[in-house]
Structures are given as C-alpha cells and as structure tokens.
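Data card: per-record layout.
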Amino acid sequence: MTTECYRLALQLSPDHPAALLGAAEAHLASAQVHLRMGAMGMASADLRQAAGLASACAARHGNLLAAWKVLGDVQLQHAAVTPHAQLRELASAAPGAAAATAAVAAVGARAAAVRAARVAYCRAIHLEPSRGLVWGDAAAATLQEAALLAQAGIAQPEAPASSRPAAASLRSLAWRLAQGGLRLEPASDCLWPTAGAVAGGEEEGGAAAAAAREFCWSRALQLNPKRAGTWAALGRMYAENGAGA
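The structure for this 245-residue chain is written out next.
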C-alpha cells in the first residue's frame, strides 16, 4: 500500500525528491521484511527498485545529503542479499562448475554493491562532514566490503593475493572512518558498536585489536545497556580470547 501511494505521487511529479526517497525507503523496508522471512528473491527485487529510485534522486538532486544516505543504505543491504541479476543466474546455473562460477560472481556483485554504498556515504560526508553517524555508516560499509573481498578470496583460492591485501587495507580505512565519526559524536551509542566491529584495522586478530574492541563495546554498553547485539559481540570476543572460561 505504501509503495503504491509513492508510485501515484511519482506519476504526478516524477522528479520530486521526497517522493523518490520515500518510495526508495518503502522498498528498502519491504526488502528487510522479506530478508527476515528468507524470501531472497523478493528482497532482491525490492532492492533493485529501491536502488533505481535512490540513484535517480541522487542524479537529479546531487546536493541533497539524504539522497546519498538512502542510496548508501539500499546498497549496503546487499551485504546480505545478492543483486537480482546475479541471483537469477545463480538459481538457473547447473550443478557443478557453472554453479561454482555463478556463486563467485554473486559474491563479487555483492562486494561491488557494498562498494557503491561506501562511495554514496562518502559523497554524503563530502556534502556535510559534521554528520558523525554517516561516518559510521561509511565505516560499516567499508568493513562489509572487506569481508566480502575476503570471502571472494576463499571462494576463489587460485587468486587470493589480489583480495586479501585489499581486505586488510579496507579494514584499516573502516577503523579510521569510525574514529572520525567518534570525534564528531563521542556520546553516540550507535557509533561505538560500529567502532568495536572495525577496531584494530589491519591487526584484526591481535591483542591490541581485542583490547580496542573491548573498550568500544564496553563504552557502547555504558551509553545504552539495552543493546543485545553489543552484549553478544562482547561475549563472543571474550569466548574467543579465553576470558571468563
């Protein structure tokens, strides 16, 4: 019903930024619902619609921060959802080598979409550098891109050297972006969990990185002790490092 209302609004005024972004956000919300239900095909189709609307708004209203923010939010969802074209190829691929090739291409397409999210967030930062939460969004997108590049390296072991250094440098960039956001909004309970996820940069498994993650997540829980995901992340880190056993 919501998407239909926005469709009618766009028929009356195709270039209206509020209608374009409202329709994009409605399709994004629908995609998130379908993702929770496990309906990947419908989620992917919703994201394709949302990306088209948000891209159109960003192209026509390039100085509108909200356009780039929504475009980044839509593209970042591809960290969990394969883009529609690659999903169809993956579903139609025959078992064996063709399916393996399609799976690697799907991971690459997800990484490209998340990279587009990082670029969109950086455009938003360029328009208004004082928005600390957008710095956190850029850090989260950069971390997801690093994870997907590492996954692509595992899925394609004959060429791991091209993806692993890139993934390490992206983790370092994500950490710097999160620190930039925290300098702007040091009391944000949204930024500290993101900082904990990217803490340590390239030294992902070292003791210094673990200490940085512990500090960030503990600070996040001081600000908002109701963040169940942060409690789980902190507990997982302690379990991995043998603390509290």
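Known properties of this structure: The radius of gyration is 19 Å. The mean pLDDT is 87.

See the next section for split statistics.
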